[in-house]
Amino acid sequence: MPVLPDAPRPPRATGGSKGPVAGAQVIARAAHLLRLVTAAGVDGATVGDLAREADLTRPTVHRLLSALRVEGLVDRDEASGHWLPGPELYLMGSVAASRFDITATARDIVRSLAVRTEESAFLSVRRGDETVCLVREDGSFPIRSFVLSEGVRFPLGVASAGLAILAFLPPQDVDAYLERHPELVEKWGSSHSPARLRTRIADTQARGYAVNPGLIVEGSWGLGAAVFTRAGDPQWALSLTGVEFRFGGERLAELGRILLAHAHQLSTRIAAR
């Protein structure tokens, strides 16, 4: 299972002048576990994995997961002991999709991007301080990168999709994000220091698309282009991943042009909804 960053924790809930809402911490921890279980994908995650990533004790994680299982929000594979998303999440997601999901709108564009480039193409959405992959379409080139797949989360600025989104946020939002996440260097390496991220943000703004030169997995490159709401907010991103020798020289520039054209097409389509 990929080691994923802790999801951003919401501010402590308050109820006017009456102080903290009872149970807010428990709800925040349970929600964080749900995100981690979902991010683990079809293989699921062990209690130990989840305890480490959530920075909680194993008994606490087991107690919360057991309560979530009663409600159908998570499930447990009895053979492996791994925890997986539960059926109630599917039902909730089906209802929420009518408001938030753009996969039906975007799928043919993602598929076209994979066909045109022969690389793996993706649609990701911004969720708080992270991006979540919604759609993956593989191109015809037989060597592929498997850094990204549906449900996988990365912090903004780490994968190319998140860097593309971060680069087109207002400057004050970028500053606040970097202040909130000093742990990026420890978890993702010195290339994710604030100074180096700001350099890549400036490069992305100048180029129009983000480049990740193997910073997550050596030899696996990525390109990302922001997709905007009608109001001009970078809420989604299209991206490409592949092996390093496929992303060099003139081909890199050509991939960038194709990616930007598809991102513009999707932004236009979303604005017309």
TrEMBL record:
Pfam families according to UniProt: HTH_IclR (PF09339), IclR_C (PF01614)
Residue stretches making up the IclR-ED domain: 88-272
Residue ranges, annotated region (Disordered): 1-20
Origin: domain of life: Bacteria
Matches recorded under InterPro entries: GAF-like_dom_sf, HTH_MetabolicPath_Reg, Tscrpt_reg_IclR_C, Tscrpt_reg_IclR_N, WH-like_DNA-bd_sf, WH_DNA-bd_sf
Chain intervals with Pro residues compositional bias: 1-11
Keyword annotations from UniProtKB, A to Z: DNA-binding, Transcription, Transcription regulation
Record domain HTH iclR-type: where: 24-87
Keyword Transcription regulation: yes
Protein name: IclR family transcriptional regulator
Source organism of this protein record: Microbacterium phycohabitans
